Amino acid sequence: MKKIYIINASPRKNWNTDKMCQSFAQGVQDAGGKAEIINLYDINFKGCRACYACKLRNGKNLGRCAYPDGLTEVLDKVAYGDGIVFATPIYFGDVTGVMKSFLERLLFPFVRYDKNYTSIAPKKLKTAVIYTMNVNSEIFENSYLGKNNQGAIGFFERWITHVYEKPVRICAYNTYQFSDYNKYVADVWDENDKSKHRQEVFPQDLKKAYEAGKEISIA
To answer: Among 18, 49, 150, 212, which residue carries the largest CB count within 10 Å?
Structure first.
């Protein structure tokens, strides 16, 4: 039975990113695997402390984050799983702050400071990325992902690919953000368009996440 860890970097429970995570997890389970969703906003942790214990030659923590906090147990078990999913809403054209902090803590210890930045991760995990965002696919691909993966999201995925397998990408565009748009200053969005998209397209996005979950379990 394959164990897949789904890292949810959204603060909102039962909304877009969380629903995508749940759908992915259901796909994993229906294909015979085991899925665990880890909500980063429920964990007390910060990003890399630059102590460099993970780089200390012959050190006991070489290749492992040594800072003890709420993330320690998560890092230890994720490193030895069978797959990892990085799920995040897009904030300011990038992944959320907690996802960046998580990536620092997870990947930096595995990257040697040699000429090739060689990975010493214990396993070459299968990966996927889930993005939810207000914008359309054109903005995402041209600005956030960027030409030749030079955008912020492209940079994020390049480091995942450097340590693990290249991620499968699942996106939900033009997401519905509020339960009642009239309560918020959000005139830039057309609520009717958002509502229609949520009813007609978001279920398809959930299905894509579900199918990706099945695929990562049987591949």
So the answer is: 212
